[in-house]
Every structure is written in structure tokens, then in C-alpha cells.
Amino acid sequence: MNRYLDAWRKAQYEEMYDMLLVSTAKEVTKEDFVNRFRKIYEGIEARNIVITPLSVPEESDDKKTDSTRLYPYEIKMDTIAGMIQAKGKIQLEKDEGGEWRVHLTPSYIFPGMQDGDTVRVQTLQASRGEIKDRNGQGIAINGFVEMIGIVPGKLGEDAEKTKAALAERLGITQEAINRKLQASWVKDDLFVPIAYLSKNQASIDYSDLPGVLRKQEKARVYPLGEAAAHLSGYIREATAEEIAGRSDHLYGPGDLIGRAGSEQVYEDILRGRDGKRISIVDATGKTREVLAETAAVNGRDVRLTIDADLQISLYEAIREDAGTAVALHPKTGEILALVSSPAYDPNAFITGMSDEQWDAWNLNPDKPFLNRFTKLYSPGSTFKPITAAAGLELGVSYVEKAREIKGLRWSKDSSWGSYYVTRVKDSPKVNLREALLYSDNIYFAQEALEIGADAFLKETGKFLSNVNPNMTYPFPKASLSNHGIKNEIQLADSGYGQGEVVMTPLHLALAYTPFLNDGVLIPPVLDYQEGDAVGSSGISVISADTAKLIQSMLADVVNHPGGTGYGAKIKGIELAGKTGTAELKNKKEQKGQENGWLVTFDTAESKLLLAMMVEGVEGRGGSGYVVKKARPVLEEYYRK
């Protein structure tokens, strides 16, 4: 008996078989005996097997001789579903030669098993947490999608014709359909899933195809579609590399994992842990006994500060362009929208997409998969209020300080060679207020030079210092220079937001929050919080007086007929802001791509701050094109 238990503990199943009574061993071959043990124990991931005799052997009740003994024992093992602990008895009998051998019974693998029983391992599916906006509207939810499938026995005589028609309507090959119909489990009366239906495919009529049926299946759904694609991201089946790369060993083949956007960023919160159940099941499929069970743990929901309606509205405004928009609450830092265009439909990664659709997105020169709200851009003239604030703080500037500038071009002296700074409006004498109003590049180039490189980096750098807190969603760092400001030309260009100055739209929007908060820069918030906890950890970057001056000048930019942002003026709404056009080129004499900007906020309620950028606005009105895109969104938002 000790030999048998020791072989069991060590998984030496061949030796166990050799200890069976010859008469009972005839019921199963050694190969089947060994394979069944291995298949079951490997299937349940059995380890740390401990088998302990419980007492002295007993005589069998139905035997009156001393040729039979029952050995009570206890078996414990760790498994994929937790610990299994059971008590049983092993019967030993003397064979014809007087040697004690094991009598084979149905319970030789687990106590409690009977003839015809099997061991079943079930996965108890955990649901993935949902992503919702501030009002509970779904961004990524567990919903239903329509699936098209075939019942083979109902295809009729023209089966190939039906499959060909279905393949054409789904945009897949007939070979792909046949492969699914040839699976080993397929039977004539079973529904065989062929494909999830996209939004366009769902509107197609399939009722004329014999044997073709539609069903609703549970799936991840992205209700905002393209409007929030880069924010939501999507899930896909984990690759072998992703499974191997996780130290927590939580993923296996077939598991889904967040691949982009919030699905990826919040993966560890959203993903639940599947449970496992190990049962003894009889020949009819009925559970006889549950040996071990680990309950499923559902993923947790994520609630963002996003306003889904505003997100959609902003996307619709720029969906025909390559661009981005970020909206936030300037008092709390709560991010209300993160938009990137063009985009893709994340639902296609769930329902499947045709090769044509993949090529259309992947080969599009405007790069729909590029997340523009996390991309660094030159802010152009929208950076000028920051330079102005630095000059006011240092005493280099004051509102009515005038600079005499002749013509539309200016360079400091002959040391600049052929390099010069240009402006749009020829005004021989311009003060700070007018410089912001007309967006005078030369004025701010001269102001930056007067401030000096070190002081410029220190003062304007304050506006970037609190823009990268420990926010869950990753954004690259803004930068004023790559390796410091090397010369006066770079310093002059930096004064009006060119040179090596780069910011994401979120950085730029946040850099305007001091102008509404008495000089306090508000950090961003994307994880929704109840109550007054948000927006309480800002840092002071300029004085309240400087903030009020900048705000009043930015109000002129929108409300004065000569202001570059006058096109954004909305009757009854007190708006302030700044436009900008950043030109991308390698040489001064070249014509490069122009990116148009608008940053605007309301000065009365202070409930919205918007930064919008559209690429390639040259020949389309520059930043005025962006103003036209933003105005209807602003009107709709403030009229609610």
C-alpha cells in the first residue's frame, strides 16, 4: 500500500498500474490508465500532491476472509481552481499467488467517481469593467453585437451559391466560410458563427439566403465609435509575447487585452480574473460533485471626466481634417474631451474588418491610427500670452509699452545674416495689448530677446512645470528647447511659439488656466471624482494682477473687430482667447505646412477652455479656418 501511495505522489502511473490485480487490470490498458491520470491531472494543473493514510486497514464488509483490506486515505492537491481535499478508500486483495494487489475501482483517480464519470474543468467568465463618461454614458461597454452564422443542414441544394452570396455581402472569401464549416464540432443542426456584423453590414438583408441566421452575442462595444477611438482604444486577443511578458501570469491563449487608449491604460483595473471550477460529471453531463472552485472576480468600472456629448461635437467639427481638440474645465482641470482626427472605428476590431477597410486606414496619409492629442506640436502664436506674462512678471513689459517696428520684416543686426522675423500687420508703433490683438511676431521676438535666454526659460517654463502630474493616461512632456537656447535667433523664435517650443494640445490648454485662476496653474484630471476634491493642487506661476491683465488682453483678441480671434465672438458669451499659425519648414525661404490653432475660454462662468488645432490650413484661411470649426461647437455648448 505504501508503495502504491508513493508512486501516486510521484506521478509514477506505470508503476501504479503494475500493482493492479490482473483481473481488474484487464478492464483498462496501461496506456489508457497512464494517459487518463496525466490528462486529468495536467488539465487541472495538479501540483503539491499529498496522500496520507488515515488509519489501520479495515477488512472489507463483504469479505469473510483475510484476503481483502480497505485502506482509508486523504488526498490533497493544489489545482487551477484551488485546493482539492477528499477522503477515500483503496481496496487491496491477494491474488492467486498470495501477493497483495490493488483492486481497480472507478474512484482510482478521485474519491467519489463512479463508472462513466469524467472530470470537467470549467472557466467561470469574469466580465470586463466598463469605461464611462462623467454622466455615466458608455465609452467602452459590455453590450451585444449581431453575428451572422450558418446552420449547415438548412443550406439546401444551392449551398455553394448561398455561401458565395454571403461571402460577397460580408466582404470575406468563400474559403473562409468553408473553413469554419469544416470544424470538427460542426453538425447539421448547429449554428456555426461566421462573422460579427459591422454597422454597415447589419443593415444588409440576409433573409433570402437559406440556412443563414442572425444572432446577438455579448461583445465589447464602443458607443461613441470614431469620435472617441483614440480615447477608448480597443481590445484584442493577447499575443504569445504579451502573455509571456506578464509577470503576473494572468493571461492565457484566447484572453483579451487592451491594445490602445484607455483600454490599455486602465487594463489592470478593467480586466477581471476568470474563475475555475473542477467537477465530477456523470455520463449524462450532470454534476455529481464540485471538487474545487475559485470564483470569478469581475473587472472594475472606470469613470472619466469626459463629457461624451462634447467629445462627439468636437469630433464632428474636425472629422474631415487632420487635427485635434482638447477641452477642459479651467477651474478644476477636469478634461472634458480628448479628440483626434481622422480616426477609426474601434468596433471594427471586435466585429472584424475587411482587407479593404484595413488598407484604407493603414495607407491613409492622414494616419487615422495616430493619436494627435498626445502628439507634440509647435504652438505658434498661441504661446505669445505666456511670453507676455513672463515679460510682465519680470518688469520687462507693461501693457502700454510700445515698440517701434518698421515694415513687415525685422532682424536684430547683421549677425543674423539673411534670417529675419515677419509679421502680418505693418504698424510703426505697437504696444503689448496691440501686439496680442494683431499677433505681432516681431514684438514678441524682441520681448524674448530683452528678457534673455535664462530668464525666458525659467519664467515660461513655469507654465509647463505642473502639466505632467501623475495622471494615469500618459502624455509626452512639453519642451521649450531640445538642449537649451543656443542663440538669439532661437530665442526670438521661441518668443512667438516657434523655434524648438513643442506642446501637446493638453499642455497648451492647461497653460492658459493661470489666466482664469489668479495666476494658479491647474493640473489635469481624467479620473472622475465626486465632490470638491478636484482642482485643489494647483501652483502659482504668475501674480493675480498679471493674470488679470493677460485675460483682459485675450478678451480683446476675440471681441475687438481687429482681433485675430474676432470670428469666435458669440453674442451673449464673454469669450477670450488666442489664435495661432505654426509654420513647419526647414528653411526661411521655403513655404511649409501650416497648423492652425485656437485657444479660447469664457471669462464669466469659466466652465470651458478649448484648444483646437487643424493641420494643413495653408490656403484655407490659416487659424481663421480653425475658428470657423470651433464656433458652432462653442455656440452649442454655451446654449445648453
UniProtKB/TrEMBL annotation:
Penicillin-binding protein dimerisation domain span: 124-289
Gene Ontology terms, MF aspect: penicillin binding; peptidoglycan L,D-transpeptidase activity
Keyword Membrane: yes
Principal localisation: membrane
Keyword check for Membrane: yes
Domain Penicillin-binding protein transpeptidase: 323-633
UniProt subcellular location: Membrane
One cellular component (GO) term of this entry: plasma membrane
Keywords: Membrane
Ranges of residues in domain NTF2-like N-terminal transpeptidase: 2-117
One of the GO biological process terms: cell wall organization
Family, per entry: Belongs to the transpeptidase family.
Protein name in the entry: Penicillin-binding protein
Annotated source species: Brevibacillus panacihumi W25
